[in-house]
Design brief:
five-stranded antiparallel sheet; Alpha-Beta Plaits; alpha+beta; 193 residues
Length: 193
């Protein structure tokens, strides 16, 4: 009986040793042969992570540019349609003289008048006189209305005009009062008129 008890123990030892050898062999095989595959997968994973990090950085930069553009557009929108704090009067009258010349009109006179001040509004007024035919005057008035300035014709009188030698018979003189508006910041206005 002692001998029969030794056989199962010996069998158990052989089985344990075989299992241990199989585990060691599997571990060695995985370490030696599959490590190249695992290293390749790890390298691919690192490249994917680096690429995703670069994409994320690009997206953040694009988002920052879009935020900056949005702020610019909001600032433009906030000031769009508001009266300017100061009107470039000289530039306006240079443009007005160009408009007159484009519509074959001659500028007869251009004089400043008394300014009017209202709460939050300044009206600078100018007498402006041009000479030309009625169709040319009409096109000129339309061009003034379409100009990008805060200005308006507040008075208009059209006369037959003095006859000059060589002047067309249908020539007229248009006397205008041009009001240029601005909203000076921090000025309460005196309400004079």
């Amino acid at each position: 009986m002692a001998r029969s008890a030794k056989v199962p123990l010996l069998l158990l030892d052989v089985l344990g040793a075989s299992t241990l050898a199989a585990c060691l062999l599997t571990a060695t095989w995985l370490t030696l042969f599959h490590s190249d595959h695992a290293v390749g997968e790890l390298r691919d994973l690192r490249q994917t992570i680096n690429s995703a990090a670069q994409d994320l950085s690009s997206l953040r930069a694009a988002a920052d540019r879009q935020r900056a553009t949005l702020k610019e557009r909001q600032a433009e929108l906030a000031t769009h349609g508001q009266l300017p704090a100061q009107v470039p009067v000289e530039e306006y009258f240079q443009n007005l003289s160009r408009l007159a010349a484009q519509h074959r009109l001659r500028v007869v006179r251009h004089n400043p008048l008394t300014a009017r001040s209202y709460p939050g509004l300044l009206e600078q007024r100018f007498a402006y006189e041009v000479m030309g035919t009625m169709p040319d005057l009409a096109r000129f008035f339309r061009a003034i209305e379409e100009a990008d300035f805060w200005a308006d014709v507040s008075y208009l009188k059209i006369d037959g005009g003095p006859r000059q030698a060589g002047a067309p018979a249908d020539e007229r003189v248009a006397s205008l009062t041009i009001s240029i508006f601005s909203a000076p910041r921090g000025d309460g206005g005196s309400g004079s008129g």
